[in-house]
Amino acid sequence: KTIKYKDYLINIMRIISGTHKGRKINPGNKLNLRPTTDRSKEALFNILENRYFFNNKNVLDLFSGTGNISLEFASRGTEEVIAVDNNFASVDFIGNISDTFGLNISVFQSDCIKYINNCKNIFNFIFADPPYDYENYQEIPQLIIKNKLLKKDGLLIIEHDKNTVFNYEKVELRKYGTVHFSIFSL
To answer: N or C, where is the chain less crowded by C-beta within 10 Å?
Structure first.
């Protein structure tokens, strides 16, 4: 939801479910980001909750921006969430919100491709939400496969616009308005 206050546009996000259900988060204008909409986030998490229990699961949130997805996973009881973004303001914001809410989110400032190449952990869920004009979308699943970052039965979810297409055998495309999710089971 976007509200106008004086001459500023302010994106208000909310945590949809879990221990912090209904909590509103206001990143303000200093981040200047495009958070995943509540409608598409709710649809995505409905899919995930019908397939998985979140306890004892870990998550890597790449291009984490406002931390919208990290906060949702953490609120729903995942064991560990790692949020990675190259923007210091984003990392600072996510860290502060995580501390305020008492959530289990570790935040790292890093280029996401470098992080993937140096990561030694394996994850149940990897979520990536690069800017829609990002030029290396195809590189993300390739590097995750190459570096074996997903656990057996894990999912890679990439948020993108309608212009990005992935040609993989095991990819499910979900569309919610202008938001598209490609869900890979590698």
So the answer is: N
Token representation of residue 178: 């202008």
Prediction pTM value: 0.90
In the prediction, which pLDDT does 68 show? Answer: 93
Per-residue pLDDT band for 103 (boundaries 50, 70, 90) equals: very high
What percent of the chain has a predicted confidence (pLDDT) above 70?
91
| Angle at which helices 88-101 and 68-75 cross, to 10° | 20
Residue 81 parent element (H or E) = strand 80-85
Is the pLDDT confidence value at 1 over 70?
Answer: no
**Residue whose C-alpha is closest to residue 121's, from 95, 147, 103, 100:** 147
What letter would DSSP give residue 17? Answer: S
Contact (Cβ atoms closer than 8 angstroms) between residue 22 and residue 30: no
Helix then strand then coil, % of the chain, to nearest 5: 25, 30, 40
Helix ranges restricted to H, 25-154: 38-51, 68-75, 88-101, 112-118, 139-146
